[in-house]
Amino acid sequence: MTIELKSNAPTGPIESAWERHRFDINLVNPANKRKYNVIVVGSGLAGASAAATMGELGYNVKCFAFQDSPRRAHSIAAQGGINAAKNYQNDGDSVYRLFYDTVKGGDFRSRESNVHRLAEISRNIIDQAVAQGVPFAREYGGALANRSFGGALVSRTFYAKGQTGQQLLLGAYQALERQIAAGTVEMHSKTEMMDLVVIDGHARGIIVRNLNDGSISSHCADAVVLASGGYANVFYLSTNAMGSNVTATWRAAKKGALFANPCYTQIHPTCIPVSGDYQSKLTLMSESLRNDGRVWIPKSASDCWSPETGKLGRAPGSIPESERDYYLERRYPTFGNLVPRDVASRAAKKACDEGLGVAYGGRGVYLDFKEAIGRLGEAQVAERYGNLFEMYERITGDNPYKVPMKIYPAPHYTMGGLWVDYNLQSNLPGLFVIGEANFSDHGANRLGASALMQGLADGYFVLPYTIGHYLAKEGVRDNDPTRSEFKDAEKASAAKLDKLLNINGSESVDSFHRELGLIMWNHCGMARNEEGLKKALKEIPAIRERFWNNVSVPGNEKGINQTLEKAGRVADFLEFGEVMIQDALSRAESCGGHFREEFQTEEGEAKRNDEEFSYVAAWEYKGEGNAAALHKEQLTFEYVKPSQRSYK
Amino acid sequence: MNIKLHVWRQSDSSAKGSFETHNLSEINEEMSFLEMLDVLNERLECDGKEAIAFESDCREGICGMCGFVVNGIPHGHRERTTVCQLHMREFSDGDEITIEPWRALAFPVQRDLIVDRGAFDRIIQSGGYVSVRTGSAPDANGILVGKDIADRAFDAATCIGCGACVAACPNAAAMLFTGAKISHLNLLPQGQPERWTRADNMVSQMDEEGFGSCTNVGECSAACPKGIPLDVIGLMNADYIKAQKKLRSQ
What ipTM was reported for this prediction? Predict the structure, then answer.
């Protein structure tokens, strides 16, 4: 059966669409708001801002996070900045330009109506954050400072050194703590969502496990909001936090929510390269570094990393200018080092595939600040990037003021996520999905400094209105967590844990995760092709079977058992990975971060096929061992006409 | 390199803990300290033994989730470094390393190296925010903040809430943590309307949680991975004293 995917986006002029929509949707009587229970899963920028704002509006909110405090959510690690169409720099920015850049940057695979709303709201976010005391960078006169970012020719990025995510998250966290103190939000830290409960087709609650004492319990509500982030850890090595996982969204998908565009993953061009097999995660170096850093590789392979000796040729400082290839500046004279992420990543891969890599395993290129230090002085460079340079030095032992950084692309962000309409509601009524967990605004490639923007737009300014539309329509319902649907789901969750604990195999959870990650990276990473994807589709079920027969999960389900937590998440990645591959295989075109080698221009750029693939691919789970079913939402472009993206 | 590791093991908050020793060989010096523990845990898991429980998430030194005492020093001997950023190149072949959880009354041990830092959240709940409704903010450049004040507020705001300051303090005081948040907000124009109640409530909550008092030792700032300066405590104390007077007269 085909599920009809209606975007529910308002028709008519896009400039006034959001305003008209807000007028058209139902409102909940302020006196009735406290009668509605809303669950928020996740406490990052999207979850914390949504929980705080809905608490403030008067709803009865419960917020769940697997970390020990909402302040730990991985939004905290975002470095570079947040975009807003304020035009404070008087350089020609506008809401329309941010809208245009984002649709184009997403390679024409996002929904215009959502993106325009995002660009409008971007301005309110900065106002809100500043009022909360978020210490953005400022000019000497006291006004806010801006910088430029990849994929844009205007300076619209607001920042707090290289810690913008931290400061914005602490702003949202403090707003959330204020509501917790006021009693409008009940916070459940160290609590992981195990399942979504659907009753009569509506999302009505969740099953959770307390990670401290191991107990499983049910929480019933009038609506459930997932703000559980992205799934880049399917690659094992990524810039995501150790705990970032697909569990909440995947388990919702298994209950009927459609997973949209899972193959749209962003490989970030500037990360610290892998240094060995034991590596547990990769560290991002903010894209803002490309404002002043110049990317290059040696022209001669003898100056690169040698697979024979495992060593580098000449030190970068002793390679003369004439023997260096500043390949981004050469290939893209207009945008130079500031080309969008997907373009920069592929260019680095190409260089390394040609044997010109300069880090361990031949996987790395130079990012050089010598020219910037000469131009600006060391103090000015430290003012802009000090904490990033320090972080780099901690991890690698090299001092970037003296020697060029080595960088290589790494999985970073996932544009795909659960399918939502204009109201951020999934195909399951009552299930809302916000932030990175949904698929909505970035198309096939996300521009820098727009993840924070989307998370906060959804949480502060979109969901708190649109959820009211659903709640008002449904009215207050009984909230009884002792119903059989909850008890059955609790039992199923407990049985799954029991099964993991009783395999008593001999291989570690991490070894399976690494194995899956390698397959995903090799066949569904920066470049994909039909042969590799088909191979992966065979290999993943085999690993999954071995996992369920030979994984070792010592200990029991009572109390803290981190191995058990990891095992549950890896089990989900082992299922989810297959859908991601299926999506990549069915999308026989290249667009944004999805690069199919069979579909490229003569110059090696992504070649879209708008006639056949201008749609959102939303996948329906069809049971274990069965292929997921594809549903399509056609995309139409009334304002930004699709063209071949060019950054030359 | 070879390392002899003494690890604190404690099955739950009520159990009596003890040190357990592991001999590790073939440790690569490019590994982070936590990756060394990952390697050990994977070995334990494959042998059917329970892994050493420790917390970490971002592993980039910003989430504040990780932290334990390494050879007597919170987060280890390298200055301004969280334990997730500490690398094995900082140690030598044959080293003996002892690791144990934060020790403080207000941070009960939950398991092995994990402690409950919920007290920090409750301190923030008592006043570590600006009360501004979503949607009611004026234009961002309508609030001008001089760069000197903005920079000082920023430095205080970089606290990651890891708890190293408490662990380092001989009195297990939370003055650096509380002072950092009070300074961040009380320095800024946005924080002025609630300045005195904030100082008063946050200090009271801090005392209620069972943290000790400050005796000007300065270990907190020395152990702080973000280098939060000691003067945030001075600002907090000054505001707390002024608050007593201002609030009485209201």
Answer: 0.98
